Amino acid sequence: MKHVTYYPKGVCSMQIDYDLDEAGKIYNLKYRGGCNGNLKAIGKLLEGRDAKEAADILRGNDCGGRGTSCADQLAKSIDENLNS
């Protein structure tokens, strides 16, 4: 299993941590900072799910006109880490 720590840009959360298994499933997703309840919910919804599918759903989500969001930043991190 590969552990990922990602530092998002342009959002309230300061850090995203999660694990990717060999099959591309996401586990143990946790955000530091940001909207606590919503980000915990994202972690619960994505536990054991296909990371590529999750990124496809979350990519482009906007928060407050910022052009990105905590969910969009997770998608960027997944894209980077599935291709590395």
Give a written overview of the molecule.
The protein is built from 3 helices and 3 strands. The protein has 84 residues and is α+β, with helices and mostly antiparallel strands. It has a single domain (2-82), classed as Alpha-Beta Complex (Sufe protein. Chain: A), CATH 3.90.1010. It has a 3-stranded antiparallel sheet. The radius of gyration is 12 Å and the shape is globular. The mean pLDDT is 96.
Please outline the helices and strands.
Blueprint: E1 2-6, E2 15-20, E3 26-32, H1 36-46, H2 51-58, H3 70-82
List keywords for this structure.
three-stranded antiparallel β-sheet, 3 helices, alpha+beta, Sufe protein. Chain: A, 84 residues, 3 strands
- The structure class reads alpha+beta
> Helix content range of the residues, please?
25-40%
- Count structural domains: 1
- Mass-distribution shape: globular
Give the low-pLDDT segments: none
Structure summary, number of beta strands: 3
Contiguous helical run count:
3
CATH C-level = Alpha Beta
Question: What's the gyration radius in Å?
Answer: 12 Å
Fraction in beta strands: 15-25%
Mean pLDDT: 96
Distance between the termini: 14 Å
CATH topology-level fold name: Sufe protein. Chain: A
Largest sheet: 3 strands, antiparallel
CATH architecture heading: Alpha-Beta Complex
